[in-house]
Design brief:
The structure holds 2 protein chains of 2 kinds. By secondary structure, chain A is mainly alpha-helical. Chain A has helices at residues 6-13, 20-32, 34-50, 64-74, 110-135, 168-190, 196-222, 227-252; strands at residues 155-158, 161-164. Classes of the chains: A mainly alpha, B mainly alpha.
Chain lengths: 254, 161
């Protein structure tokens, strides 16, 4: 019996074998060859399991942040000065608190979570529009791309004509605030399903995010043209959205 | 900086885990993680919100690791030479597999030789295509396919499936 080449078998297992005739040849072979059937099954099983690796976490070594900070200084982009004497915030991993979820029913319907997800997408789109106005260019997020140009006054199309915002900060807040509010309400309704330890982790993470967000917004207010400050504010809002989404899913058992 | 540090605190575990998976060595992982965060600081003005921040950060970290790998000439030579080898005739795995011990996938991946592990992670975990992996690593596409086949076979044996 002549077996398909390993490359062909892999392509078949992954759904990449486009040529119909070749695909049919492999299918017919698999009907009679348990070894190749087993190989195809293994590739599919492995690829499914491999996806779980992507979201895994590991505590970074002690002192890594200090080295990152030193690297940033060495790169020639000194950080803005923050309040003196404050200890760096610490966060706990919310994913590790998952095991503390309390069992129980009740709470919002799934519609609320979906509505918040839609609002989150709108928030992201608005942020994109804002930054495109800043940079005057299009294209997908490319971390290897260059930084954008200084900001213009924020403007967005709305029914009845374009809406001009007094500041980029106002635009960002209007983009993200509704989604965040919706998620906070959903979480408030269902927080009874979470274990106290989980709630503690969540509240601490949100406190750190809000504190950092306030600082970033202050920086943006002081320098509306700063693309760095815009990036920081956007990053913090996105992180807050993700943390809230994760918490709501956990609380609703989704 | 406190805002950026807050981002670091929240996302560092995932970035470090990615570096550790790719490096198979905590020292190298720490070095890459540090560089990734410095690069994230430098590139933050380019973050446009078109993807989630975690996605942007993840992609940045993988790209940095690929850049570093490609720059290691001795690594590319070792990677290429594996194409001529049989399954076990090459450099020792990062961690030894323990016969009879039922390990999980993460543990099994850590036992793979460097080249096989890198290609497996890029292809089956990160979703890169053969051609892209070959280009980014500076090796032939056939070598990438051979390494992937080898990785999958070794994982199957390690996991007793």
């Amino acid at each position: 019996m002549r077996h398909p080449e390993s490359d062909q078998l892999s392509a078949f297992a992954e759904g990449r074998l486009q040529e119909t005739r070749l695909r049919e040849v492999v299918e017919r072979h698999l009907e009679d060859c348990p070894d190749c059937r087993s190989e195809v099954a293994w590739i599919r099983e492995l690829r499914t399991e491999a996806l779980s690796l992507k979201s895994q976490e590991a505590p970074p070594p002690e002192g890594l942040w200090a080295r990152v900070e030193a690297g940033i200084h060495a790169s020639g982009r000194p950080p803005s000065q923050g309040p003196a004497g404050d200890a760096p915030p610490t966060t706990m991993d919310l994913s590790q608190a998952r095991r503390g979820r309390r069992r129980g029913g009740g709470g919002w319907t799934r519609y609320t979570l979906q509505a918040a997800a839609v609002l989150a997408l709108v928030a992201i789109s608005s942020f994109t529009a804002l930054t495109l106005l800043r940079t005057g260019s299009g294209g997908v997020d490319d971390p290897d791309g260059s930084a954008g140009a200084p900001a213009l006054v924020a403007e967005r199309e709305a029914p009845g004509g374009s809406v001009r915002f007094a500041s980029a900060m106002e635009e960002l807040e209007s983009a993200y605030a509704p989604a965040i509010l919706e998620l906070e309400r959903a979480l408030e309704r269902d927080r009874g399903n979470l274990a106290p330890a989980t709630i503690q982790v969540l509240e601490e993470n949100l406190r750190i995010i809000d504190e950092a967000l306030r600082e970033a917004l202050t920086a943006l207010a002081a320098d509306p043209g700063s693309s760095m400050a815009t990036g920081l504010v956007g990053g913090m809002y996105e992180t807050k959205l993700q943390v809230l989404q994760q918490a709501v899913r956990l609380a609703q058992g989704v | 900086m406190r805002s950026f540090e807050a981002l670091y605190r929240l996302h560092a575990p995932r970035v470090y885990a990615l570096c550790l998976r790719m490096a198979g060595d905590p020292t190298q992982a720490e070095e890459w993680a540090q560089e990734a965060w410095v690069r994230a600081w430098e590139r933050l003005p380019g973050f446009r919100g078109e993807s989630a921040f975690t996605t942007w950060l993840h992609r940045l970290t993988v790209n940095l690791i690929l850049d570093r790998r490609r720059g290691e000439q001795r690594w590319a030579k070792r990677f290429e030479s594996v194409a001529e080898y049989g399954p076990y005739e090459e450099s020792a795995p990062t961690r030894e597999a323990h016969p009879g011990h039922r390990m999980d996938l993460e543990q099994a991946v850590a036992t793979l030789p460097e080249g096989a592990r890198t290609v497996f992670l890029l292809y089956d975990v990160e979703g890169y295509k053969h051609k892209e992996i070959a280009h980014r690593l500076g090796v032939a596409e056939g070598t990438v396919k051979a390494q992937l086949h080898r990785a999958r076979k070794m994982l199957r044996e390690a996991l007793n499936r």
